[in-house]
Each structure stands twice: as C-alpha cells, then as structure tokens.
Specification:
308 residues, 15% strand, 3-stranded antiparallel beta sheet, Glutaredoxin, 4-stranded mixed beta sheet, 9 strands, alpha+beta
C-alpha cells in the first residue's frame, strides 16, 4: 500500500497519515529541579496533624520535586530538665494533654493516654527502623512504615518504641520485622540516624514539622509547623520561580485507599474538598459497599480497605 494509513485515537476516523519527520523522541520525564526535605519524627503530633495537607500537596504537585524524609530526633530520652518548654512538657504525662489538644484541633485523632500509662521513652528506636527500611528497601516503604507507626501511636495508643510493637508494624507490611528491628539496634542504625540529624541541622530545622524546599541554585524556602495547603503551593512556586503551576487531578478515592489502606475522615475532606457532613455520601458514591469498612475512633470516622 502506497499511502501510510492510520486511525486517530481521539476522533476514531481512519485515513491517510500526515507526513511527519522521523527522528529520536525523548520520553524522559522532566527533571525534578527541587528537593523537598521533610524534617520530622515518629512521635511528632503536629506532623501527624499535617498529614492530610501534605498528602494532597505531594499527590498534586509531587512531579515537581524529589521528596526526602529526614528524621529529626525529637526525644532521645526523658531527663529532669524540660523536653519541650514552649509546650510545657517536662515529663511524659505532660505530653498527653498537649497531644489531645493537637488531635482535637486538627481532627486527626490522638488518644494520648499512653504517655501516662506506658510512655514512649525515646523516638530513636522507631526512627532507626525507618532508616533501615529506607536503606534496605526504598523511600516509599520507609514512609509507609512511618505512617503505620503514627497510626499505631496516636490513634490506637500503642508504644512504638517497644520492639514487639515495631516488629508487628513491620511484619504487617510484609517485611521481616524481627530482622529489621534487630538490624536497627546495631551501631550502623544509629550512624544512619546521626546522618539525618546532621542534615536537619544543616537545613536549619529546629522544629517539627519543617518543610524545606531547595532548588538547583541552592536557594530555598522553609515552612515550619502546620500550614494551609496554599502555603506549600506558594512556596513551591517561589523556589521554581514560576507564577503558575499545573496541579495533577486528585487520585480516585478507590486508588488512594488502595495505596494508603486506612484514611481518616479529615484526610478525605482535605483531599477532595468535601465537607464533614458530606463525607459519607461522597464515599458511598465513590466506593462499592464490599470495598471498604467504616469505623470510628475518638469521635472521628476512618475507613479501611477490605482485603480480599
């Protein structure tokens, strides 16, 4: 056949193909020119509070930056002096009330009674487990562990500094919890954590959460504490020196729940611009009944994926 024929995927019409120049096509994605450093800690309540906003930001604008989680070392151990004088925290029991305030304000549920009955003695053990997973697997699995640890601590009141709890969290991810927790206790585990601490210092992070976005010219912006979604978008525009950025559409709720396994009502509200009173009807519209289970804890609804 002399003429080159083709069918147009958009119109469905088939006919003679237009002549085009042949040549090498570059299918590489644009290079990400910004690194976003998220300086955090497994027991940071304000980090738990910003998860809904941070998730939406990374889902919609993540193609513009490389996301790097950095452990900051919030609590090495309890001692006689103040741990966090700004929030009136001198001993473990002081944490419980502060956490509940953060949970009530953010609507990311926090029980907090653990810090009276069986307090976390140090945030270093779960931080070291994060580093071992990050180095032996990848950032995605490490961030998944961080999320599961925070769920266990804040919502379900489990002591994530205890080896048995850490092992169970890692096992539930399909990894070898005993081996990973054992490896985290070796000197190399603390060395990896120390490297994160040094990076956090070099970034000037003195509070959690800190979001530092740095461009190729080594110029950046630092956002400390909980911020509105627009603050992160504006910060990214600033480091990219762009007036406008194209946001990706939010993922389908089924896709998001498949990835996250558990979502609190507040996370769905923030991701999809849904009012609290509309969450149930939104979920019923987006998900089939046999796909998810609705639960409640501390007065907040949460939804889990039903595993087949």
């Amino acid at each position: 056949m002399k003429n080159k024929m083709m069918c147009d995927i958009e119109t469905g019409i088939c006919g003679v193909a237009e002549e085009e120049e042949t040549g090498l096509i570059d299918f590489n994605k644009p290079k990400k020119s910004v690194t976003l450093y998220y300086v955090t800690d497994p027991i940071c309540s304000h980090c738990w509070a910003i998860e809904p906003v941070l998730r939406r930001f990374t889902e919609q604008y993540g193609e513009h930056f490389n996301f790097q989680t950095v452990m900051g070392g919030l609590l090495e151990k309890w001692h006689d002096g103040p741990i966090d004088p700004a929030n009136g925290i001198y001993k473990p029991a002081d944490v419980a009330g502060h956490w509940r305030e953060v949970g009530d304000h953010s609507r990311m549920p926090i029980d907090g009674t653990l810090m009276i009955d069986n307090p976390v003695q140090s945030s270093y053990p779960p931080s070291r487990v994060f580093k071992v997973i990050q180095e032996n697997h990848n950032d995605t699995r490490a961030n998944e562990y961080l999320r599961r640890a925070r769920e266990a601590l804040f919502a379900f009141n489990q002591n994530i500094s205890e080896p048995s709890v850490m092992i169970e969290i890692v096992n539930n991810m399909g990894l070898d919890g005993e081996a990973i927790v054992k490896q985290a206790d070796l000197p190399a585990g603390q060395q990896a954590l120390n490297e994160d601490f040094a990076l956090a210092r070099s970034l000037g992070a003195r509070g959690f959460p800190s979001i530092i976005m740095v461009n190729e010219e080594n110029k950046g912006i630092k956002l400390v504490g909980g911020r509105p979604f627009e603050s992160y978008v504006d910060g990214l525009k600033q480091v990219l020196n762009q007036d406008e950025l194209q946001a990706k559409p939010q993922p389908a709720l089924s896709q998001l729940l498949e990835k996250e396994q558990l979502l609190f009502s507040k996370e769905i509200e923030v991701m999809y611009d849904v009012e609290l009173t509309e969450v149930n009807s939104f979920i019923e519209k987006e998900l089939s009944p046999g796909y998810y289970q609705a639960n409640e804890i501390l007065g907040e609804a949460y939804f889990t994926l039903i595993k087949k």
